[in-house]
Every structure is written in structure tokens, then in C-alpha cells.
Amino acid sequence: MNTLWIGNGRLAQPDRIVNNGSLLVEDGRIAAVNEPCPAGVPSVDAAGGYILPGFIDLHVHGGGDADFMDATPEAFHEVAKAHCAHGTTALAATTMTCADSLLEEVIDAYLQAKTQPWSGAEILGLHLEGPFFSAASKGAQPVAEQRIPTRAMLEHILTHAQGQILRWDAAPELEGMEMFAQVMREHGVLCAIAHTNADADQAMQAFDWGFSHVTHFYNAISTFHKKKGIVHAGVVEATYLRDDVTIELISDGRHIPKESMQLAYRIKGADHIALITDAMRASCTCALHSILGPRIGGVPVIVKDDVAQLTDLSSYAGSVCTMDRALRVAHLQYGLPLQDVCRMLSLTPARLCGCQDRKGSLEKDKDADVVILSPGFEVRRVYVRGVLCHASEQTAKEQ
Ligand SMILES: [Zn+2]
Q1: pTM of the full predicted structure?
Q2: Choosing a second label site near 68 at 20 to 30 A (CA), which of 96, 110, 217, 266?
């Protein structure tokens, strides 16, 4: 049996932070919480830092100079490895708006990647961002590939992906969206509002159809605005009025100001918010020039002020965020309580992608997906199902 004891750290549980907590890991699972180290079991000293559940990123495009749109198994493995070094132990692989032929190649690469071993975050499934979005809220999505859904296209892609699509984002004001929501429901896919110019009425209608999540809330969605001399509420207000709707927030300290994140936290609470990176290729690297989307045919971007931007600086083009930075922004910069930040980084996203029975918290019998951080919230060690996938240089020196 493969056994390990991790102790001497502040351990996050769903309802509290335990000082001097510990975990016993056996064969990739958590066998006991806050019990002394059994005789003869190797131990890891968290050295007064933090022992947290591994982070689950529901919205990530790339990292480590790879993007899922590269459509190779190697790109999937590279992104999983790069983000794992920042505490991500599971992720949804996010695609961009593109032609169906490229989307199928990406899906094929995903399916192939899953058959091969890799070291890094577990890839839970696919997240399709587009191609059904509003040109008015396109962000960095390519307008040329924007379109409206047909049942045939949806069924074709869902079948091609063999049940591996976790979530699909769309603008609900487009034609065909009631059907879209129904098809997502039939296939058990999380249906999210994104890149939209819908007003509050249209958003409410969409929630009734089955849209239940809002993608990168505050970014590329509508809010209070004036149209032809009349004021309208937007998706933001509608989302705040619906207790059943969940949101995700890009926690890079650039996409969302402090007060806006604090407001979202106050209204929605930790059980209805997932913190995400929306990271692109340049994350987990030092690159100042990069490409959003596929390496060939993607959009050139520059990294400036810790965020990826179109070269004319007209729009952000994904983040260079990592989940450890998301933690530091939400907790240290924006002042949200650590225990709730941990829920938003792990348990809520686990629930949203249906794996909360085995991931998202440090509880007995769950996967031993664990991040050990320093007292200053720098990642020291990362375990995926009990296997050490990353150890910082600092940790290596201490050994
Ligand atoms: Zn995205």
C-alpha cells in the first residue's frame, strides 16, 4: 500500500480552517483527516503553511506555451502539467470559437490525450466557449466563426465527444437558444451564458430554459445600460436576482475590480461562485508576446500589466492567471475569507462539473488532490491522487 502522512499545516475543511491539521493518504485517497501519523508511515512537513484541497479550474484555455486549440494530445498534457505547478489538480479544457472541423480535431486530441499517461492536473472534460456568441460582446472570440446553433450540429459534436463535454457556453439572445438549452439538458451538460448582450428579460427567460451558470461574470456580459433613451437591466442584474444561478469570476486582479468581486461574493456566496483563471497560452511562462487560440491562425497578443491583451490594447485576450494567484488576489488583495476562497477554488467547481463525490475537499475517501503552500501562499507541493506532481525549488532545497 502507498501511504503518506501530511501534517503541521493549517488545513482547509469545508466548514473551517484547522490549525495543525493533517491528512493520511493511502493509495491515492484520503484515508484519515487530523489523526496522528501512524508508526512507520513516511511524513511530509507542511512547515506551518497551508494544506488545501487541489484547485479545480473550470475555465482554462492554455498555459506553459500550449493551448488546447493546438489540437494535439501533447498540448493537453502540457497545459495540465503547467497549471499543476500552480496548484491546479483538475480542470475543464476550454475551447475557443472556431470552425466545426477544428473543434472536432480538438476533441480527437482530447480523447487521445486521455488514453495516455501524463503527470499533472486531471482533465475532467471539455468546456466549449462558443461559437454561439453576440458580436457586440465578442471579447477576443473571432467574429468570422460566430453562428447560431442547429440541433444537428449540437448532436453531432456531442456524439463526437463521447459524453466528455462538461459545459457549453452561448449567448441566450441568439436564435435557437431554447432548443440549445434543451439539448444541453438532455445530455447533462452545464449550460452557461457567455459573451452576451442580452437584457435582463432575455437572461431570465434563458434561466427558465435551463441556463444555470454565467461565464466570466462581469466580463463580456451586459449590465445596466441605456438603449434608445430607455434604461435596461442586463445579465448581471438578472443573475443577482436568481439564487439558483452560479457564476465564475476571473480572479487575476485585472478583469474584476475589488468592489465588484466583493459584491458578487456578498450576494452569491461561496457555494455559487467558482474562481477561474480563463488563462491562455502565456500563463505559467514569462512570455511577453504570445498567441491566443491555435498556434497557427490564432490571434497575436501581448502580455502587459499581468494580463494578455490584443496588440492594439482594445480588449483583454484571456488572462495569464494561475489558480495560486487567484487565491492570493481573492484572499490577500480583495480580503475574502480564506475558507470561502478555498470553497470557490475547489468544492464549488467540483460540484459544477459533477465530481464533488470524489474531489473538491479534504475529506475521507476523496481523491488525495492536495496543495501545500507556504505561509505566504506560495505553492510548495502538489499531489494529484496522492502522487507528487510538483515540488517547488524551495521545497527541493529544504529536503
Ligand atoms: Zn475563456
Answers
A1: 0.97
A2: 217
